[in-house]
Amino acid sequence: MKDFSKVGFSSRSSSSSSRPDKRGGFSDKTYRRDRDQYPERDSRDVRPNREKDRSPENFVRLITTKSGVSERVMHEDQCRVLEKCGSCPSLDISYKNQLIQKTADLKLRVQKAGSDFSSVLVKDCVESEDRLGYRHTVKLVVSERLSLGGRSFQKEGNKRWIDLGFYRQSLNEVVDIGRCPIQSNTLNDVMGWLRTGIRLHNVSVYTPRNKTGLLQSVLLRTSRHTRQTLLTFIVTKADLATLRPLARDIAEKYMNVQGIYMQVVAPGRTLNSDEEKQNENLTLIVGQDLLEEKYGNFIFKFSAASYMPVNPLLTSRIYARIEELMELSGKETVVDLFAGSGGISITAAPSAREVIGIDCSPHSVKDAIRNAKINEIKNVDFYEGKVDEVLAKLNAEKRLQKADVVILNPPRLGCEGKTIEHITELAPKTIIYLSSFIDTTFKDLKNFKKAGFEPEFFEPFDSSPGTLNYEVLCYLSKK
């Protein structure tokens, strides 16, 4: 485990450098500013040149930790909507304290989960190499501001103001996130022009109050490895005539935009359930499919309809950690459930005898098969369908009757149907459970414990620095 005590903030010396170190965090020089002198003005700072704005106090925020201790901390990066947005409540807390808080949060959840987990070890939260600019996937709501008189700026003679951001229920409005510090520069660049493009091409924006308009939200994904970008317009109806000029303009301005899609979704309907994801209606407007990313030593290509991890560097570390925990000798059978586009399966394959991956999404399974071919992996088979049904079918066909290691990365609802029962029938020696949905995790782990599998430790990974979210890896072994 790395020494997290070396990652933090200081304000004791006179240096004012603010460049990130090689770990994606900030060096000791980052927040060292002499309180007797004004900090140097960064070239990216667009604030008015006023003495009160240059005062060191404007870079400091008073934070009260969960233990009741108050401390003064420096902003990691200027975020104008930090409080209003609410998505990153700990963005300007020292990274050392962020990790401590997430570890403490998991320990508290384990304690509340009951006596079944009272003796289970909770490890320290694993840091993210990128603390800013790590986010490579984001879905943003599109909103058009209203004038003081309640009239839309869309009317002739009035200027339109387009916001891209997150809907905050307490404010009943969409908070424009501007140039978000946790997102990659590529995403921020495309978003910056998209606000203008929507206005220039006169694309109507859906308003829940009037239930009219075309564009509801925008899904952007980019690769850290290649900087390729896929963009999806989520709309209320198919209108290529309106969207195609905007899409072509974006593709011409940003050469790294790989493809632009249109997806029709009924207003008020979300795409959170697995069933809805399988029936996504995607239409290619400009460019081509597939976004190339790299995890570890393997290349992966994702289609627009497949799930793609938010934090690529940390995802690589999680895959490597899972491979380490499996302790494969080349003779084992590994089963990867909810396998997605094959990231864990392909990472484990070189050290295993065979790997079987199962996922309910036809898009993800198609990507997984392609990724295996790209990386010349031949001892992996992928199957599409509901996990419990596929497991039962493979067992009936005597294709899979025993497994040495089972890996799970389930969606929000956790293990479906008789999944845990079928896993138990495989009699694995080791189960590795990965999830960012903590409550669901404990529900499934209690069922595994009843089936004779004992959780040995929890290991949290900071997949989203600045936010309250993290992923948890649980290692279980047969009693």
From TrEMBL:
Similarity comment: family membership = Belongs to the class I-like SAM-binding methyltransferase superfamily. RNA M5U methyltransferase family.
Check the record and name the Pfam families matching this protein. Answer: Methyltransf_31 (PF13847)
Identify the SUPFAM superfamilies for this entry. S-adenosyl-L-methionine-dependent methyltransferases (SSF53335)
GO process terms (BP): rRNA base methylation
| Name of the encoding gene | rlmD
What is the recorded name of this protein? Answer: 23S rRNA (Uracil(1939)-C(5))-methyltransferase RlmD
Ranges where the Methyltransferase domain occurs: 331-425
Catalytic activity, EC? 2.1.1.190
Which InterPro entries did the record assign?
Answer: Methyltranfer_dom (IPR025714), SAM-dependent_MTases_sf (IPR029063), U5_MeTrfase_fam (IPR010280)
Binding of S-adenosyl-L-methionine occurs at 338, 359, 409
Q: Which GO terms describe its molecular function?
A: rRNA (uridine-C5-)-methyltransferase activity
**Where is the sequence biased in composition, kind Basic and acidic residues?**
19-56
UniProtKB keywords? Methyltransferase, S-adenosyl-L-methionine, Transferase
Q: Which species expresses this protein natively?
A: Fluviispira multicolorata
- The segments labelled Disordered in the record are 1-60
Taxonomic lineage: Bacteria, Pseudomonadati, Bdellovibrionota, Oligoflexia, Silvanigrellales
